[in-house]
Amino acid sequence: MKKILSLALLLVLGMASANALHPMISNADAQKEVEALERQRFEAQVKKDYAFLEKVFADDLVYTHSNGKQNGKADYIQSIRDGKSQYDKIEIEALNVRAYADGKTAVVNGTILITLPNKPDGTANLAHLKYVVVQVKDRKKGWQVVLWQSQKQAS
């Protein structure tokens, strides 16, 4: 019995020292980081900042557009390069970040208004979307988007 208690104590002390070396980020800090990243990512999509997008999108990204089409990371970034995904402006209307106790997972949902290039007849081309994003925090790469899903919001 003493051996089991001693082993349990060593295990607890080992976990405590490991957490001291790699302290968990608080939920409030994680929420702030993820919210800032969301805003920066939208800006990078408009400005075509490919280096930032390469960093912030995980290699296993699943990006589901409001029309149901899915892209992986390379395909989605290439669609911006090719002009298939164009954004003149992205306005955040609502943004809700939920960070979880592990400090490495966050779910974001919100609504955005995307201004796209004008339609051929010159009229404004707007997309009003509801969206959900899942972000995970990698030790080396930081927060990364692993999932994006959107749907058109009724007018």
From TrEMBL:
SUPFAM superfamilies: NTF2-like. Coiled coil: none annotated. Residues 34-145 form the DUF4440 domain. The keyword Signal applies. Residues 1-20 form the signal peptide. Keywords: Signal. This is DUF4440 domain-containing protein. The lineage of its organism: Bacteria, Pseudomonadati, Bacteroidota, Cytophagia, Cytophagales.
